């Protein structure tokens, strides 16, 4: 195979017995039975092989070595007398005639045991990521990622998409997150920005006459980490289609994704086309979130009218939502734990009551409901309550009540047996997003999501809103999200390709044509030369592989991830640079003075 090996450590089988082979890898373990007998486990990328040392000379060659030293072993393959069915190579062993040390491990103590690295502190794992990746389980996630990316490429090419790379150094533009800025040496005082997404470039490709574009695109955003979001950089399956609308985009992904999820996923069942379409406002009402997990059979109900005036202060103002859970016999301790978890995640306190085995409303806020038998009966009928039903309640503003109910639904689905089908991937499209919203901080009309989305109804609805004939908050966008198992894989949209409609959409949020030209000059001018209707989407590769691997943290599927503080503790980034480098760029570091 090469000068260092004839076979890999995962390759040898009984049919190789009697052959002389050379293996190379890391010394995973050495178990000495005596001065002249020991078992050595050799590991490489492909697997492990047992090497039996039967002479004092061979034992002495390795006994002084630290684990994780790299070795080359030449010897004869023979059948094992005590086979190990858990190993692919468990039927054979190698008796060496020569052992060569290729790379000595000079540390007596490892920062963690390789095969148990996932139990180590995350900061240690990231600092010694090259050791963490030797763990076959950790390495397996990276291999899976490679396989998935390769499958995505093949599938997109079969759909006649062209893979086109777009610039990494570009102009800063307002796209929702903070840019990473790169100073220009040749143009002092000016900066490039790393792209938050190839959004404008892919739309320009459509304007340039390319029909179907994709790339596995790196994106850079200076934002905080979450379980499903890596700080700094991430990758997405970026795609755009000319002369296409929403259903055309849906058809492509509904063809591409199910086979990949069924083949590579931890669960081998995945939604088939067509995925369920759920309007945004319906999703918020039924699930309390625009990222519903359709594996859960629970739903949210509005009980504001039924509980108003019951005498319980939190229900007297605002909105009240309920999540009933049938056949639920959680003990009081578990109910209290769920309440605490909901409050931590939602920031609002939940409430509860249950219908006990006798069919009576009891526990929690039951006394306020039972004070009026007619109210209790109406609530029982509205929620179709049966014995052993637990009901969680949320209250507050519409936004607060929905958010809390959404968290409740997700936690209850996981905690209450029989209400979640764990072993499958359930996709859905969230459609009909609002184009505008009132900003929480500004109190003014703002774009709700993507300002480049085509408003449903086009110029006509925008002009009606401008004349005061239509509430702009009722205008919907031809925008959509792809959700799988409660994780948002992607947002996409039919693009606003008409410069007149684009300008009118921005005018409603107080920005004129000159603002659009200044903020998005390339797109605005390109569209003035005749742009085709186009639409696209960009599912996150990292999130996709996280779902496929069954991991709960996105860092488990990235080869060299940053920590939660956007630091690469292995490479020491970000770091200070030499003063000369700053001088060359015309940059001076000014320390912020702390406010008194």
TrEMBL record:
<dbReference type="InterPro" id="IPR004115">
    <property type="entry name" value="GAD-like_sf"/>
</dbReference>
<keyword id="KW-0067">ATP-binding</keyword>
<feature type="binding site">
    <location>
        <position position="175"/>
    </location>
    <ligand>
        <name>L-aspartate</name>
    </ligand>
</feature>
<dbReference type="InterPro" id="IPR004365">
    <property type="entry name" value="NA-bd_OB_tRNA"/>
</dbReference>
<feature type="region of interest" description="Aspartate">
    <location>
        <begin position="199"/>
        <end position="202"/>
    </location>
</feature>
<dbReference type="InterPro" id="IPR029351">
    <property type="entry name" value="GAD_dom"/>
</dbReference>
<feature type="binding site">
    <location>
        <position position="449"/>
    </location>
    <ligand>
        <name>L-aspartate</name>
    </ligand>
</feature>
<keyword id="KW-0030">Aminoacyl-tRNA synthetase</keyword>
<protein>
    <recommendedName>
        <fullName>Aspartate--tRNA ligase</fullName>
        <ecNumber>6.1.1.12</ecNumber>
    </recommendedName>
</protein>
<feature type="binding site">
    <location>
        <begin position="540"/>
        <end position="543"/>
    </location>
    <ligand>
        <name>ATP</name>
    </ligand>
</feature>
<dbReference type="Pfam" id="PF02938">
    <property type="entry name" value="GAD"/>
</dbReference>
<dbReference type="InterPro" id="IPR002312">
    <property type="entry name" value="Asp/Asn-tRNA-synth_IIb"/>
</dbReference>
<dbReference type="InterPro" id="IPR047089">
    <property type="entry name" value="Asp-tRNA-ligase_1_N"/>
</dbReference>
<dbReference type="InterPro" id="IPR047090">
    <property type="entry name" value="AspRS_core"/>
</dbReference>
<keyword id="KW-0648">Protein biosynthesis</keyword>
<feature type="binding site">
    <location>
        <begin position="221"/>
        <end position="223"/>
    </location>
    <ligand>
        <name>ATP</name>
    </ligand>
</feature>
<dbReference type="Pfam" id="PF00152">
    <property type="entry name" value="tRNA-synt_2"/>
</dbReference>
<dbReference type="InterPro" id="IPR004364">
    <property type="entry name" value="Aa-tRNA-synt_II"/>
</dbReference>
<dbReference type="GO" id="GO:0004815">
    <property type="term" value="F:aspartate-tRNA ligase activity"/>
</dbReference>
<feature type="binding site">
    <location>
        <position position="495"/>
    </location>
    <ligand>
        <name>L-aspartate</name>
    </ligand>
</feature>
<comment type="similarity">
    <text>Belongs to the class-II aminoacyl-tRNA synthetase family. Type 1 subfamily.</text>
</comment>
<dbReference type="InterPro" id="IPR045864">
    <property type="entry name" value="aa-tRNA-synth_II/BPL/LPL"/>
</dbReference>
<dbReference type="InterPro" id="IPR006195">
    <property type="entry name" value="aa-tRNA-synth_II"/>
</dbReference>
<keyword id="KW-0436">Ligase</keyword>
<comment type="subunit">
    <text>Homodimer.</text>
</comment>
<comment type="function">
    <text>Catalyzes the attachment of L-aspartate to tRNA(Asp) in a two-step reaction: L-aspartate is first activated by ATP to form Asp-AMP and then transferred to the acceptor end of tRNA(Asp).</text>
</comment>
<feature type="binding site">
    <location>
        <position position="488"/>
    </location>
    <ligand>
        <name>ATP</name>
    </ligand>
</feature>
<feature type="domain" description="Aminoacyl-transfer RNA synthetases class-II family profile">
    <location>
        <begin position="148"/>
        <end position="574"/>
    </location>
</feature>
<feature type="binding site">
    <location>
        <position position="221"/>
    </location>
    <ligand>
        <name>L-aspartate</name>
    </ligand>
</feature>
<dbReference type="Pfam" id="PF01336">
    <property type="entry name" value="tRNA_anti-codon"/>
</dbReference>
<keyword id="KW-0547">Nucleotide-binding</keyword>
<dbReference type="InterPro" id="IPR004524">
    <property type="entry name" value="Asp-tRNA-ligase_1"/>
</dbReference>
<keyword id="KW-0963">Cytoplasm</keyword>
<dbReference type="InterPro" id="IPR012340">
    <property type="entry name" value="NA-bd_OB-fold"/>
</dbReference>
